[in-house]
Amino acid sequence: MSRRPESERSDWTDLDLLTIEEAHGRLLTEIADTDVRLAGLGAGPADDAERELLQRRLRALREAAEDLTDLTDHTKS
């Protein structure tokens, strides 16, 4: 099976490109799912470690969603 390395593949051949709105919607869904996971954590060292990872993930997801919002705001004006 001969596949091109990722760096040589064209995005257009994937045919599953997301619009900014679709990407933003997926980020919002992931943010909500991560919030639920955080709320379900208990106390203890294992949960504390997972909580820290999920909080970092949540910050990154929110920043990405905000960046997409900023991007769509600039394209509309």
Produce the secondary structure layout.
Elements: H1 20-39, H2 45-76
Helix pairs in contact: 1-2
Features of the shown structure:
77 residues, extended, mainly alpha
What does this structure look like?
The protein has 77 residues and is mainly alpha-helical. The chain is built from 2 helices and no strands. The chain is extended, with a radius of gyration of 17 Å. The model has no long low-confidence stretch (mean pLDDT 83).
Short overview:
The chain has 77 residues and is mostly helical. It is built from 2 helices and no strands.
Main beta-sheet strand count, sense and barrel state: none
Q: What is the tally of helical segments?
A: 2
Query: In terms of per-residue confidence, which ranges show pLDDT below 50 for 5 or more consecutive residues?
Result: none
Distance between the termini: 47 Å
Q: Please estimate the helix content.
A: 55-70%
Beta-strand segment tally: 0
Q: SSE order, as H and E?
A: HH
| Radius of gyration over C-alpha positions, nearest whole angstrom | 17 Å
